[in-house]
Amino acid sequence: MAESVMYHEGNRQLQDRFDSRRISDRLEEKLMRREFTADDKQFIESLPYFFLATADAEGRPDCSFKGGAPGLVRITGPSELAFPDYDGNGMFKSLGNIVVNADVGLLFIAMHEKPKRLRVNGSASVSDNDPLLAETVGAQLIVRVTARAIFPNCPRYIPTMSSIEPSIYVPIAGQEAPEPAWKGFADFKDCIHPRQPTFKG
């Protein structure tokens, strides 16, 4: 097999220990791709959330839940996706990591009647003047990711769950989003940063 996009020496050591190098190579050969399919686009753009893994300049990892309305993430090119950054706690853990280390991993997962998951690994950038800001309600920044590897995962351990209702904090055109209660707690209220200007819709 040609040089692997998905595996490094640590992966290979364990694959060889458990005699799984052949199936790992076959999975990469048959399932890994560098461009989004029509099914990938439909799946990703239907979800109201995903998980984002980043690391700082020293490689120390962080994982974050990112939520919004369905369509939160958009496929913007054959190998590119984009998503908004909404008002949060102001720590900028994920986006700050991207500023110093562009390598990211995204996990898209559906937990309803037909469980499904898709991984996207690639390089990210953060912008405060991206054209998508003008059409994304509540966004203060836009993150774009160029995919290096797009890979569907076996869904066997995904529990089946029902979505009850969307978060009340999801930005909606023409409505002011409520502030989370923690911003009024005595320990924090004297140092809360102002909301940044965002597209209102």
UniProtKB/TrEMBL annotation:
<feature type="domain" description="Pyridoxamine 5'-phosphate oxidase N-terminal">
    <location>
        <begin position="41"/>
        <end position="147"/>
    </location>
</feature>
<dbReference type="Pfam" id="PF01243">
    <property type="entry name" value="PNPOx_N"/>
</dbReference>
<dbReference type="InterPro" id="IPR012349">
    <property type="entry name" value="Split_barrel_FMN-bd"/>
</dbReference>
<dbReference type="InterPro" id="IPR011576">
    <property type="entry name" value="Pyridox_Oxase_N"/>
</dbReference>
<protein>
    <submittedName>
        <fullName>Pyridoxamine 5'-phosphate oxidase</fullName>
    </submittedName>
</protein>
